[in-house]
Amino acid sequence: MRYTHKQKSAILQKIIDKISKEIFHTTEDSEIDAIMNKYGVTLEESAMPINKNTSTILVLGALKGRKSDYQMTARKLNIPENNIEFVDDYSKMHSFNAEQLRYSDRYSDIIIGPTPHSIKNKGDFSSIIAMIENNPKEYPKLLKAIANNSLKITTSNFKELLQQTRYYQEAI
Predict the structure, then answer these.
(1) pLDDT for 62-120, tens place per residue?
(2) Out of 23-27, 38-42, 52-56, 68-72, which region has the weakest mean confidence (pLDDT)?
């Protein structure tokens, strides 16, 4: 059977009415989550808008080269230096407070490489990566820098990852 435009519109309206009733009759967030799962709906991490002037890409992990080379790579992609924050010193990573990333409007993205497992306030998770991957809606977009099957931030994978950031895709 071939549906006419009018029939398709009527079907669509019935479906919208049915789903609207389902959602508005819920009393728990978990019921809304179940409805979203039922229909394959997700809220994208891009719900928080990117501000070209204030959003920052966090680079967390040991760099394989000189920081100036990474900064130059970002400049070539028209990403200003003040919109990238490097935490690449092991002692600073060790005391880095993971809690500041939760629901952050400061950071649009996190490019992560090798980091100590004992970062502050990561809870019961084995690493900051596990913490973010288990709660992706609570954190900025996570991009893992992988080279030769291990976490490693090289200038070449850094350029590729920058182009995958929300900041680059939305603000540049």
Answers:
(1) 999 999 999 999 999 999 999 999 999 988 898 999 999 998 889 999 999 999 988 99
(2) 38-42
**Is 144:151 a contact under the CB 8 Å cutoff?**
yes
**pTM as predicted:** 0.73
Yes or no: say if 67 and 118 are a contact pair by the CB < 8 Å rule.
no
3-state helix, strand, coil in the chain (%, to 5): 50, 15, 35
According to DSSP, the residues that pair with 84 across neighbouring strands are: 57
Q: Which of 138, 110, 108 is nearest to 123 (CA)?
A: 138
Q: What are the tens digits of pLDDT across the range 49-63?
A: 788 889 999 999 999
CB atoms within 10 A of CB 142: 19
- How many CA atoms lie within 13 Å of 171's alpha carbon, on the beta-carbon side? 23
Q: What is the pLDDT of residue 30?
A: 83
d(CA 10, CA 29): 30
What is the amino acid identity at position 146? I
Which is nearest to 147 in space by CA: 139, 138, 156?
A: 156
- Both tokens of 124, joined, read 């019961």
How far is residue 114's CA from residue 48's CA, in Å, rounded to a whole number?
27
pLDDT of residue 9 exceeding 90: no
